[in-house]
Specification:
By secondary structure, this protein is mainly beta. It is built from one helix and 33 strands. β7 and β8 form a beta hairpin.
Length: 401
């Protein structure tokens, strides 16, 4: 089995012509409890922000042992999206998006699409944006789950049946525009106000996985998106014009102030390279070689990049590509997207969530269940994580529970 075929089987979201748009005349939301009011002024999206960094600056997760604050029976394979008072969850094999009260796990509302929501939520300006395998991008009121608008980006989508699939990509919202990618290899820029199309850009796809499923990063007027076909594109966010591309890249890109980080491979080997690129022209600044595949999107902090591989190792390198440490975990399975705060790295491996010290990889704690975990989210001293078989967890320091 070659590498691109392996990427196809394991997924690329971080483990990543319009037929029209319409305003909603029906209410797909099903409120199930009194909705808690609260300000939703912040943004939350894939890996926390539009840079895809996975780094929570100024927010600290639990550093000691953890216990459950609450668990909600809601099968979720997605990285939860957390705002100041709500957690939004969904997952493969479900058409439901649920809003959950962060304090006690009470369900606030449910929104149903006509297709699975495999990966894709983002929150901005009191609106939840949802990408669905039914080919639609939905804009939903974050307070009560009512639909603001829906935009059809893919006609007659089919699941894993060639290039006519729906939407896997997490949306990347700005004040005016929502950026996402459809599984026919097209990047879409959609007006946040009404769901109308602003521009589209068709990527090259790929030999084995000819669809674009990674989540865009949008920084300083440039939209960055990878395809599992092996290309990273930098597009003008206003027009969709290609600025540059970098070959041999896959998975969702991460952007810092002076570097574009991406994973890549060479030929059909199973090795992974972490690349640091110049954002001006896409030229390679450095690369770091890993002997085994890496599928989760790395976390990029102030001076450290962390990620896990398929051989149960977690790595930390500096922002020049020099290794700082690596540790071997006592579990097996693919690592999901890695996230971090200023002192701790959090990485899920199969049915375990590990918290490791940023400085040297020392284990601070781990949490184990009988489910396969999604990538975690950090918010105000709490870790939120989805379980593929048994629910969504809120984990706090054991002393606070």
């Amino acid at each position: 089995m070659n590498r691109r075929r392996f990427v196809r089987l394991c997924g690329g979201i971080g483990i990543a012509g319009i037929a029209g748009c319409s305003s909603s005349d029906d209410n797909r939301s099903t409120p199930t409890s009194t909705t808690k009011k609260g300000s939703l002024d912040g943004r939350s999206s894939f890996q926390f922000d539009n840079r895809n960094t996975g780094f929570r600056q100024g927010v600290q997760g639990p550093t000691g042992g953890v216990s459950e604050q609450w668990k909600v029976d809601s099968r979720s394979t997605l990285q939860p999206i957390a705002t100041d008072d709500s957690v939004y969850v969904g997952g493969a094999d479900t058409t439901d998006i649920r809003s959950i009260d962060r304090t006690d796990g009470t369900e606030q509302w449910t929104f149903k699409t006509d297709g699975d929501v495999f990966s894709a939520l983002a929150v901005a300006n009191q609106t939840v944006y949802i990408s669905s395998l039914d080919g639609y991008l939905y804009a939903v009121n974050a307070s009560d789950g009512t639909e603001r608008w829906s935009s059809q980006l893919v006609e007659n989508p089919t699941y894993y049946e060639g290039s006519g699939d729906g939407l896997f990509s997490f949306p990347a919202p700005t004040d005016d525009t929502i950026y996402t990618a459809s599984n026919d290899g097209v990047v879409h820029a959609i007006a946040a106000s009404d769901g109308s199309e602003q521009w589209t850009f068709e990527t090259n796809g790929g030999e084995y996985y000819d669809i674009s499923i990674t989540s865009p990063a949008v920084v300083d007027g440039v939209t960055y998106v990878n395809t599992n076909g092996g290309s990273l594109y930098a597009l003008d966010s206003s027009t969709g014009t290609e600025k540059w591309r970098f070959e041999s890249a896959y998975n969702s890109p991460t952007i810092s102030s002076d570097t574009v980080y991406t994973l890549g491979s060479v030929d059909d080997t199973m090795k992974t390279f972490v690349y640091g690129l110049n954002p001006a022209d896409g030229s390679e600044k450095w690369s770091y070689e890993v002997e085994t595949p890496v599928f989760g999107t790395p976390a990029v902090g102030k001076d450290t990049i962390c990620f896990g591989d398929t051989s149960d190792r977690v790595y930390a390198i500096d922002t020049s590509g020099n290794e700082k440490w690596r540790v071997q975990l006592d579990t097996s399975g693919n690592s999901h997207n890695t996230v971090m705060d200023s002192s701790t790295v959090y990485v899920g491996k199969d049915n375990k969530l590990y918290a490791l010290a940023v400085t040297d990889g020392t284990e601070r704690w781990h949490f184990e269940s009988d489910t396969t975990f999604s990538a975690p989210t950090i918010a105000s001293g709490t870790i939120y994580i989805g379980g593929a078989r048994d629910g969504v967890y809120a984990l706090q320091s054991a002393s606070e529970s």
